[in-house]
Amino acid sequence: MRRTIGQLDSSRSRLGGEPVPQGSYETSAMRPQALTRLIMTIRWLAIRRGPSISVLPMSSLPTEFPGVTVHTKANVYFDGKVVSHTVLMPDGTKKTLGLIYPGSYHFGTAAPERMEIVAGACTVTLDGTTTVTSYAAGQQFDVPGHSGFTIASPEGICEYICSFL
């Protein structure tokens, strides 16, 4: 989608190499190759300039799921403090995409689950243990079936993808 915001220099180009049209800007997401080029440039600068630039590793988490069915009815737990939507993958597997607001919550599992943290942070204690483990964006943990876990988001919202294994 393009919207007029005034006159821009058409000789400048986007990361993707196309000229920027006069009087417009792009509000859509960057193309994957442009984003990769940006990340590579940041990494190059970090190496060249030393430790003054912090570079996080690229996450292997998906940013989209093409060709899926999404249930519009939300799964709401703990008075709306944990909310997710069910996603049915083309191969028939099921995932949920959700948000965890600050607090501590216990969930039981019927089937084994993999929780991938997309954004934010949380702490997790698996049933039967006393070990509290911290997870941040780009990390994951597995929960056995017929078990459970306590997940806490200390501050801010924790975003996750739950895969049923």
* Biggest sheet overview: 7 strands, antiparallel
Mean pLDDT over all positions = 77
CATH class of the largest domain: Mainly Beta
**What sort of overall outline do the alpha carbons produce when their principal axes are compared?**
globular
Fraction in beta strands? 35-45%
Q: Percent of residues in helical segments?
A: 10-25%
- Which homologous superfamily in CATH is the superfamily of the largest domain? Jelly Rolls
Query: What is the domain total for the residues?
Result: 2
Report low-confidence residues grouped into runs of 5 or more. 1-31, 44-58
Q: What's the structural blueprint in terms of helices and strands?
A:
Blueprint: E1 2-3, E2 25-26, H1 32-49, E3 69-70, E4 75-77, E5 82-88, E6 94-100, E7 103-109, E8 113-119, E9 121-126, E10 133-136, E11 140-143, E12 147-153, E13 158-164
Antiparallel strand pairs: 1-2, 3-5, 4-5, 5-6, 6-13, 7-12, 8-11, 8-13, 9-10, 9-12
